[in-house]
Amino acid sequence: MPSCQDLLESHADLASRLQHHLEAVVMGDLDAARSTFLRFAALLFAHSGSEDEVLIPVFQQAELESNGCSVAILQKEHAKLRRLVTAEQERVFKDDATLDAPTRIHWVESMHMLKEVLEHHDMRERAAFNPVLDQALGAEKASALAAKAHAVEVRLEADWLAQHSA
Q1: Residues 22-26: contacts with CB within 8 Å, 24+ apart?
Q2: 39-73 pLDDT, tens per residue?
Q3: How far is Cα 59 from Cα 119, in angstroms, rounded to an integer?
Q4: Residue 166 predicted with pLDDT over 80
Q5: Which domain holds residue 120?
Q6: Which one of 13, 32, 50, 82 is separated from 21 by 20 to 30 angstroms, measured CA to CA?
Q7: Rounded to whole angstroms, what are the CA distances from 22 to 39, 78, 82?
Q8: How large a percentage of the chain has pLDDT more than 90?
Q9: How far is the CA of 92 from the CAs of 12, 35, 99, 117, in angstroms?
Q10: How many whole angstroms separate alpha carbon 33 and alpha carbon 135?
Q11: Which residues of 84-113 are buried (b: 16+ CB within 10 A; e: fewer)?
């Protein structure tokens, strides 16, 4: 029976996809850097969108917010992650992009803030969002919510990739 905690597997997948992107950048492989970035961005937008659409309303309605994990904080982090990804996407897909040594250094350094925000967001959700939902809802309701959130994430990722891969 899935739980809201299980949804955090997407965070590990995000970290892995970002690592693959950075490896492609370091190797100077522009095509691989672009394709790995697309996969990373698609999952980030889908995962955060799924949380916004499915989990956060339940979290708010059940009055589960705390000083360290409020709807406002979660939404602010999602917005910041999306802004950082969009800025990076513009850089990666610039028509005249090349991966000479100075560009590789710049791209790796520019990802530092994104990695940091992603790590802090992961810690917040692991500590005070997903487990709180599981505990408050009970196994059956949490499982249904997790299944719904996962389905939305899968749909949003496919939609995002279809829009941005053309």
Answers
A1: 22/108, 22/111, 25/99, 25/104, 25/107, 25/108, 26/104, 26/108
A2: 999 999 999 999 999 999 999 999 999 999 999 99
A3: 21
A4: no
A5: 5-164
A6: 50
A7: 13, 21, 18
A8: 97
A9: 23, 10, 10, 19
A10: 40
A11: bbeebbeebeeeeeebeeeebeebeeebee
Total count of domains within the chain:
1
The rounded distance, in Å, linking the Cα atoms of 48 and 109 is: 24
User: For residue 11, what are the contacts with CB-CB under 8 A and spacing of at least 6?
Assistant: 47, 118, 122, 125, 126
CB neighbours of residue 136 within 10 Å: 15
Cβ atoms of residues 113 and 55 within 8 Å: no
Contact between 37 and 89 under an 8 Å Cβ cutoff? The reply is yes
Q: What is the mean pLDDT of the chain?
A: 96
Of the candidates 13, 29, 37, 48, which has an alpha carbon nearest to the alpha carbon of residue 87? 37
CA distance 160 to 145: 22
Tokens 């959700």, located at residue = 125
pLDDT of residue 165: 82
User: What's residue 25's pLDDT?
Assistant: 97
SS (H, E, C) 85-134: HHHHHHHHCCCCCCCCHHHHHHHHHHHHHHHHHHHHHHHHHHHHCHHHHH
